[in-house]
Amino acid sequence: KKKKKKKKKKKKRIIPPEELLDKVASLYEVIKHNKNSAVDKSKYEELQHENESLRTSNVTLTKKCKELENEMAELRHESANKVEDLSKLNNKVNYWASQFGVSDEAFSSLEQSTIDEIHSLIQSKEQNKTGRNSRTHNSHVSNIRISSSSKAEDTKQVSSGYNTPVLFQPTEQANNLGIPHSKCY
């Protein structure tokens, strides 16, 4: 029994005071460095889990951001096509206005509501076009008649290339466009 007690005492190591002071000093530095809080293993694991969750969220948000950038690029492309279509439509309208002798001042004085009505009519005409099978689409020119009250000089001026207003008699098509009689030249 005495031998066993001696062995146990030998196994116990006595830490010298200098080493103990060094360990206490290093622990003090760790606590001081961590803003006066001891390192808590459960808190560390919780923060590590939160960090991993944030990284996963970051990856997900990065993917979503790239998807939105691609969608935005596609919308920009579509918008550019729409602007190009509007530009072509504007050129066509200006061409037909010049063909009918409508001056720029008269054309630019059209009310916004009239322009909106024309736009909605164009959309409804396009929808109706898809429903038509056998009917052919006649030119708008054939449906507009020059008023008998207009002077022959006005007709002469239009045919000779002048940009003067000519009086047109409103037709059923003009009424369908929603153009007020006062806007027909």
Silhouette: rod-shaped
Find the count of extended strands (DSSP E, 2+ residues). Answer: 2
Q: Walk across the major sheet and give the strand order.
A: 1-2
Order of helices and strands: HHHHHEHEH
- Report the total helices: 7
Major beta sheet summary = 2 strands, antiparallel
Structural class: mainly alpha
Integer average pLDDT: 68
Instruction: Note poorly predicted spans.
Output: 133-169
As a whole number of angstroms, the C-alpha radius of gyration is: 43 Å
Question: Which percent bin holds the helix content?
Answer: 55-70%
Give structural notes.
Residues 44-92 form a coiled coil. Residues 139-150 have a biased composition (Low complexity). The structure is a single chain. The protein is mostly helical and 185 residues long. The chain has a domain at 145-185. It contains seven helices and two strands; from the N terminus they run αααααβαβα. The chain has helices spanning 2-11, 17-33, 41-99, 104-108, 112-131, 152-159, 172-177, and strands spanning 145-146, 168-169. The chain has a two-stranded antiparallel sheet with strand order 1-2. The longest helix is centred in the middle third of the chain and has 59 residues, at 41-99. It is rod-shaped, with a radius of gyration of 43 Å.
